[in-house]
């Protein structure tokens, strides 16, 4: 190979153009799993460790297109011994571009994951709250007033059964312990308060524990315990170079009595056995708890409360 036709020299003289082609190849591979880009990436990985001349088969139009990309990017190894350093430098430049595209892809996936979570959460809301916006556009929960209601004993018993199932599935996983510790804390605080105390929890506590836990934890909070939620601030931009994670306020069912809260606590993992501290923090609100003393709880019969089947 003459110096005039050397791939190293051509790569250097058309550097920006070749890097742009390479970035496009990497983007198609990571974002679209493009099969042609995949083959070019495979050639790159092999040439970055082996000093060989890459030559693909060109029997079909697809093979010819792949060979064209390999050549345009400057992946053909140089046979001139004095150009080894230039070739190594070029491979490193391509590696930096590949790593940059891969980093952007992982950020894109993370943003997408949190945006999908936000959409899923917003599709569910407590039946005892109404989500409104104030004049500044900030969301807040407002109590839905109930004129006459009874918190049935059967419904409370069913709630406890669902909690037991949730704890059985996830209670031994250390990754979920921050969630359980935070839930335990916010329930304890509310059991001695005349107004609702909110739980400020990062979305990461749920999202980073896996998709199965996300789904079941949302069911527990909203469908079973009837928690309401509001998200201060505005959604993070999908164009951001970093992943912004929300901290959301979760408010307990305002019609839950102290007695019901205490019974729920008995079915959660004891705080002393959790290998984590409570997540984030609690925050006082002005939302009243009309049934804190249990005036609207259905009174269980003597046998429901004390009978033990032997």
Spatial gap, N to C terminus: 93 Å
- Which strand-content bin applies to the residues? 5-15%
Order of helices and strands: HHHHHEEHHEHHEEHEH
Count of alpha/pi helices: 11
Account of the protein in words:
By secondary structure, this protein is α+β, with helices and mostly antiparallel strands. It has 11 helices and 6 strands. It has helices at about 5-15, 15-30, 35-45, 60-75, 85-120, 155-170, 175-190, 205, 210-225, 260-265, 300-305, and strands spanning about 130-135, 140-145, 195-200, 230, 245-250, 280-290. Strands 4-5-3-6 form a 4-stranded antiparallel beta sheet. The chain has a two-stranded antiparallel ribbon with strand order 1-2. A hairpin with a 5-residue loop joins strand 1 (about 130-135) and strand 2. The longest helix has about 40 residues, at about 85-120. The radius of gyration is 30 Å and the shape is elongated. Residues about 235-240 and about 305-310 have low confidence and may be disordered.
In short, what is this structure?
The protein is α+β, with helices and mostly antiparallel strands and 310 residues long. The longest helix is centred in the N-terminal third of the chain and has 39 residues, at 84-122.
Topology:
Elements: H1 7-13, H2 15-32, H3 35-47, H4 61-73, H5 84-122, E1 129-133, E2 139-143, H6 153-170, H7 177-190, E3 195-202, H8 204-207, H9 211-224, E4 228-230, E5 247-251, H10 258-267, E6 281-288, H11 302-306
Antiparallel strand pairs: 1-2, 3-5, 3-6, 4-5
Helix pairs in contact: 2-3, 2-5, 3-4, 6-9, 6-10, 7-10
């Amino acid at each position: 190979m003459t110096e005039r036709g050397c791939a190293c020299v051509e790569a250097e003289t058309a550097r920006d153009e070749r890097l742009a082609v390479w970035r496009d190849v990497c983007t198609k591979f990571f974002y679209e799993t493009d099969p042609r880009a995949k083959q070019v990436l495979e050639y790159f990985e092999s040439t970055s460790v082996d000093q060989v001349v890459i030559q693909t088969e060109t029997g079909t139009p697809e093979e010819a297109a792949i060979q064209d990309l390999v050549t345009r990017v400057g992946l053909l190894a140089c046979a001139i011994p004095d150009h080894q350093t230039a070739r190594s430098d070029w491979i490193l430049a391509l590696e930096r571009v590949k790593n940059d595209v891969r980093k952007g892809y992982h950020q894109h996936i993370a943003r997408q994951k949190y945006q999908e979570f936000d959409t899923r959460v917003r599709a569910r809301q407590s039946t005892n709250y109404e989500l409104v916006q104030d004049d500044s556009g900030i969301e807040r929960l407002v109590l839905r007033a109930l004129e006459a209601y009874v918190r049935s004993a059967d419904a409370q018993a069913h709630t406890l059964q669902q909690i037991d199932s949730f704890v059985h599935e996830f209670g031994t996983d250390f990754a979920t312990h921050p969630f359980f510790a935070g839930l335990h804390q916010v329930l304890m605080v509310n059991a001695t308060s005349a107004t609702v105390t909110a739980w400020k929890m990062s979305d990461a506590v749920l999202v980073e524990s896996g998709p199965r836990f996300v789904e079941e934890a949302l069911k527990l909070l909203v469908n079973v315990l009837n928690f309401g939620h509001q998200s201060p601030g505005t959604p993070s931009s999908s164009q951001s170079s970093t992943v912004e994670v929300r901290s959301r306020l979760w408010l307990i069912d305002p019609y839950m009595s102290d007695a019901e809260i205490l019974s729920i606590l008995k079915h959660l993992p004891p705080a002393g056995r959790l290998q984590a501290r409570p997540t984030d923090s609690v925050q006082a609100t002005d939302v009243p708890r009309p049934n804190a003393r249990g005036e609207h709880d259905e009174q269980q019969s003597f046998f429901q409360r004390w009978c033990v089947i032997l």
